[in-house]
Design brief:
Layout: E1 19-20, E2 31-32, H1 41-51, H2 64-80, E3 83-84, E4 91-102, E5 107-111, E6 116-118, E7 124-127, E8 134-144, E9 150-151, E10 156-157, E11 168-172, H3 198-207, E12 212-217, H4 219-222, H5 226-233, E13 237-240, E14 252-257, H6 258-267, H7 272-278, E15 287-313, E16 318-328, E17 333-334, E18 344-345, H8 348-368, E19 373-380, H9 388-395, E20 404-409, E21 421-424, H10 433-441, E22 446-449, H11 463-467, E23 473-474, E24 476-478, H12 486-500, H13 516-534, H14 548-556
Parallel strand pairs: 8-11, 11-12, 12-14, 16-19, 16-20, 20-23, 21-22
Antiparallel strand pairs: 1-2, 3-15, 4-13, 4-15, 5-6, 5-15, 7-14, 8-15, 9-10, 15-19, 17-18, 21-24
Length: about 550
């Protein structure tokens, strides 16, 4: 995930002071006023540099890079005074299967005006969730299913009236409200819903019985270029181990370039752009394309236990209530080489910075003394493969979710410099917003809603695994309204990272980085977590939020 960060001035070490009431007509509980001890720049910088060095080979699960990452994290946690958090162990096993496609054929499309062939890598990518040594899709009928959404509660079903069993479905990325300026519409207006995420589209295609699912890549609604798709979807892919070996999934999932899809549509006399417009309406009906798709590939398959790292500072008065800090330690490993031949996706910003922050924050909390509630530091695996480590923890929690107060997720600290604002991904969803606002108030900074909710960031990092099971989590980014250069400079920095480094070999440590913004952000993370650990409040999702019901149910059992 890409992040854009801000800064604020550090303050000397201070103890917890009296409670301060933050004005909120809907909440009566006062927020504790806390001040951060000195936060270690050396810890942040040194761990980030080490984790993103070539020696860690991009920190892919199941590699020597994982072993080195786990050894470093446990060593550093122990040094700062954190205890092992899983019954005396630092680790929670996460059962994964690694599937690495090889000998991938071209995608061959027959029918229409003749046979067409599209290359693996530059024109299409493909993989499978099934633990099969070979996948062979032969002459599978292709059907355009619009956005590939079946949402009865919204009166929407792109699969209505069409049988796609054994067929190859072609799907648009994002959801039907993409391009809407307001936040009103069948799918939340401009803000992407989970229906817009590629994970959902493959899940629904499998439920419909499709043999294969191909998403049409389009840079704006996808929120990243083809370079990101190609680097992320080539090489080993990781999936949760399952009893049926993925037999209930499609045989093949992948992406095709938009111009590839346009050629296929044109070959049968159909206009992709016009059908994309039609797919935005409830009256849209799936369109059989009158062509067939064929492709094949072999798979190297191996099973492993990757690991989440769990550390804890035990609370002094309510140790059985827990506050979470989460960050993912993994990245893509070796990936498509850069022009200079560099094939290690180092993941310095994404997410060596967030992983280093776990240690730096743990160090600061230990210095401040034991909080009232316990604080859990959770470094999760396989985020880049679909939030797999955080999902596994949420479904198999070391500490009960009903006793987990809430927490904060950190997914990449950007290096744009100090900013006047922070961006909250999912602002207005939970009562954690006021904790963030309280933390920012001292420095006169503001929390703003994300400017690009159509990119679906809410569903793209580990907080989502906990949110959908009811645990309030806050996920905020540094703002783009930079102190030096304003919004124009912030937006330019963000675009440069996305275009040139995100999920590529050039996300590398730079000794010339300015860490002022990062250290200010770290203070905010500290303050929010410390307030949660020192209050007796149980923040909830706001009334009407999609996650409120499951939280109310889990808390009612206590």
């Amino acid at each position: 995930m890409q992040k854009k960060w801000f800064a604020l001035a550090l303050v000397p070490a201070l103890a917890l002071t009296a409670c301060k009431k933050i004005d909120d007509p809907n909440v009566s509980t006062a927020l504790p006023e806390v001040a951060a001890p000195e936060l270690s720049l050396d810890t942040m910088r040194d761990i980030t540099q080490e984790l993103s060095s070539d020696a860690y080979e991009g920190r892919a699960p199941g590699t020597a890079g994982e072993e080195k990452t786990l050894a470093l994290l446990t060593k550093k946690f122990a040094e700062v005074g954190v205890e092992p958090g899983n019954g005396g162990s630092w680790f929670q096993d996460v059962p994964l299967v690694e599937i690495n496609a090889k000998n991938v054929s071209a995608l061959t499309v027959k029918g229409g005006k003749g046979e067409m062939s599209f290359k693996y890598g530059p024109e299409m990518v493909i993989s499978t969730y099934q633990e099969q040594p070979k996948i062979n899709i032969a002459d599978s009928e292709m059907v355009f299913v619009g956005y590939g959404i079946n949402a009865p509660e919204r009166g929407w079903n792109d699969y209505e009236g069409v049988d796609v069993k054994g067929k190859t479905v072609v799907i648009l990325v994002n959801d039907p409200d993409f391009g809407t300026e307001s936040l009103e519409g069948d799918f939340g207006g401009r803000a992407m819903t989970y229906y817009g995420r590629w994970t959902y589209k493959y899940e629904e295609a499998a439920r419909q019985g499709a043999a294969a699912a191909l998403i049409i890549h389009d840079t704006a609604p996808a929120a990243y270029g083809w370079n990101v798709v190609e680097s992320s979807w080539s090489g080993p892919q990781f999936f949760p181990q399952s009893a049926d070996g993925g037999a209930d999934q499609t045989q093949a999932n992948g992406w095709v370039q938009k111009d590839v899809a346009a050629k296929i549509f044109t070959s049968v006399g159909k206009n992709l752009d016009k059908l994309m417009v039609a797919a935005k309406g409830k009256t849209f009906k799936a369109v059989p394309l009158g062509v067939t798709a064929s492709l094949s590939f072999e798979n190297d398959i191996s099973k492993m236990n990757s690991k989440n790292v769990v550390g804890i500072i035990k609370g002094k008065t309510r140790p059985d209530e827990y506050v979470l800090y989460t960050a993912h330690w993994d990245h893509l490993g070796r990936c498509k080489p850069a022009p200079d031949g560099d094939d290690i996706c180092n993941g310095a910003v994404d997410n060596a910075t967030g992983t280093a922050a776990l240690v730096a924050l743990a160090e600061a909390h230990v210095k401040a003394g034991a909080p009232d509630r316990s604080i859990v530091f959770l470094a999760v695996t396989a985020e880049e493969s679909g939030l797999l480590g955080s999902k596994y923890y949420a479904q198999n929690p070391v500490y009960p979710l009903s006793k987990t107060v809430g927490g904060v997720n950190m997914d990449a600290f950007g290096m744009a410099g100090p900013a006047k604002n922070v961006i909250v991904v999912g602002k207005g969803k939970s009562q954690l917003d006021r904790y963030l606002e309280g933390a920012l108030k001292v420095d006169g900074r503001v929390a703003e809603a994300e400017p690009t909710p159509e990119k679906g960031y809410y569903y793209r990092s580990d907080h989502f695994s906990f949110a959908k099971l009811g645990v309030p989590m806050i996920y905020f980014e540094g703002g783009e309204d930079l102190i030096d250069g304003g919004k124009a400079a912030g937006e330019a920095s963000s675009k440069d990272y996305t275009d040139n480094r995100y999920h590529g070999p050039k996300d590398e440590f730079n000794p010339d980085w300015n860490w002022d913004g990062v250290m200010g952000d770290l203070k905010v993370y500290y303050t929010v977590g410390r307030m949660l650990a020192m209050t007796d409040d149980w923040p909830n999702w706001n009334e009407g939020d999609e996650f409120r019901g499951i939280r109310d149910q889990s808390r009612s059992a206590n």
